[in-house]
Specification:
Layout lengths: L2 H13 L5 H15 L9 H26 L5 H13 L2
Helix pairs in contact: 1-3, 1-4, 2-3, 3-4
């Protein structure tokens, strides 16, 4: 599993939400298709909100990891603690 997949897995695991991470990403893809004139119904606002919040947290986590990597600080336990702190702050 690549770094992005690991982060997504961990974020979903910590959240304990109803929608799975792949479902959230699919929701974003389907909404973007609809928004650009594609077929299908408009996305349920609650599902879209959950998917957008998930995407924002993923981007924030990746930004934090990029900073740690730049500093040479990639201790896996610290990564899990920091991602957990990020998730609990929302």
């Amino acid at each position: 599993m690549g770094l992005g997949g690991w982060i997504g897995f961990r974020i979903g695991e910590l959240e304990g939400e109803i929608m799975t991470n792949p479902e959230k990403l699919q929701t974003l893809r389907e909404h973007q298709t609809w928004r650009m004139g594609g077929d299908g119904p408009m996305t349920d606002p609650k599902d879209l909100t959950a998917a957008i919040e998930y995407a924002i947290r993923c981007v924030e986590a990746v930004q934090m990891l990029e900073e740690w990597i730049a500093c040479g600080d990639v201790d896996p336990d610290k990564v899990v603690r920091m991602v957990r702190a990020l998730m609990e702050s929302k």
